[in-house]
Write a structure and sequence with these properties.
The protein has twelve helices and eleven strands. The chain has about 325 residues and is an alpha/beta fold.
């Protein structure tokens, strides 16, 4: 597919994009101010190039062939990248747009952001959609994807490249199985943390700074024994369930999964360990109107998330006082 795109006449990229998006010769022509005959001629050349009809008539209208469906996101990305590289001035009207945003984030960030973000997106940009992708597993993959994604959301302490904007904060808590024999009155001692096997999450294999959890454990003289290593906080919760291990995960994620996995949050003598989730984007997307709008939308989501946490803490404090 990519080989075919590299060999295509650049003048046919815009007609190809319009045809794949509109699935209609007349509408595609209107979009590019091209006559129907000119658009038909472009479609003929495109069909010859790809050896595929791309659009087929079904009696009710045109539908995309399987190749057309596979080409649609690739061509859209090519057009967007060309706009960014060439600095083509654009505007963005979320109420009229059908843009598909792409965001990479961890499973943890998705549990926090996906519901409020998709709710606001449907209200402000009803024709827009969002595709959530996992975090690239290596630094090289991350740098490659930074240009291809609208945004990547990742913890601040990794110091990854790109423009950044703090999003929301959380704190790590220690989780154990409800029946863990080390747990006494909901508490674990420093000696328990040293003796117990741990489950730990490694997000970018072989290329991580010292994580805040590790730093706090070492500050207290604890050299933990990692029995199980996983690649996400959500996987870590499942790994700890039903075992004698402990693990550290963000509090918002832990609270969502405690009942389902029969886990509890253990009190420890450690100092609070904070985590800040940060939005990353490529410098070339700095002035992209759609990207600017999405970052503002995420800021609203983050304010909502933080406000809910503060209200929950206030309610808990009032209940405790009563």
């Amino acid at each position: 597919m990519h080989k075919g795109l590299r060999g295509i006449d650049a003048n046919l990229l815009l007609p190809l994009h319009a045809l794949l998006q509109e699935r209609n010769l007349t509408h595609a022509g209107d979009r590019l101010t091209m006559s129907q005959s000119a658009m038909s001629g472009a479609l003929t050349r495109l069909r010859k190039h790809f050896g595929d009809d791309l659009l087929t008539w079904t009696g009710r209208g045109f539908t995309l062939t399987p190749l057309g469906e596979r080409l649609r996101p690739v061509v859209a990305e090519a057009i967007e990248t060309a706009d960014l590289l060439l600095g083509t001035p654009r505007s963005f009207d979320p109420a009229m747009s059908s843009k598909r945003f792409t965001l990479s984030m961890s499973e943890y960030a998705m549990t926090v952001l996906s519901e409020p973000l998709t709710r606001l997106l449907s209200e402000r940009g009803p024709g827009c959609s969002v595709a959530f992708n996992s975090i690239p597993m290596t630094r090289e993959q991350y740098e490659q994807q930074l240009m291809r994604r609208d945004l990547i959301i990742f913890p601040l302490h990794f110091a990854l490249p790109g423009r950044t904007q703090p999003l929301f904060t959380d704190e790590f808590v220690c989780v154990v199985d409800r029946g863990n024999p080390h747990l006494r009155s909901g508490t674990l001692t420093l000696a328990d943390l040293q003796e117990m096997p741990h489950a730990a999450a490694e997000f970018i294999p072989g290329d991580e700074p010292m994580l805040p959890v590790e730093a706090e454990l070492l500050r207290n003289g604890i050299h933990r024994t990692v029995l199980v290593q996983v690649t996400s906080s959500l996987s870590l919760l499942h790994a700890v369930s039903g075992t004698t291990m402990c693990g550290f995960v963000p509090k918002r994620l832990a609270r969502r999964c405690l009942g389902m996995l029969d886990l509890v949050i253990a009190e420890t003598p450690l100092q609070p360990i904070s985590i800040t989730e940060v939005v990353h984007w490529h410098p070339r997307r700095e002035e992209d109107p759609a990207g600017v709008w999405l970052r503002r939308l995420l800021h609203e989501v983050a304010v909502e998330v933080e406000s809910e946490t503060e209200c929950g803490q206030a309610s808990a404090g009032a209940s405790h006082s009563a």
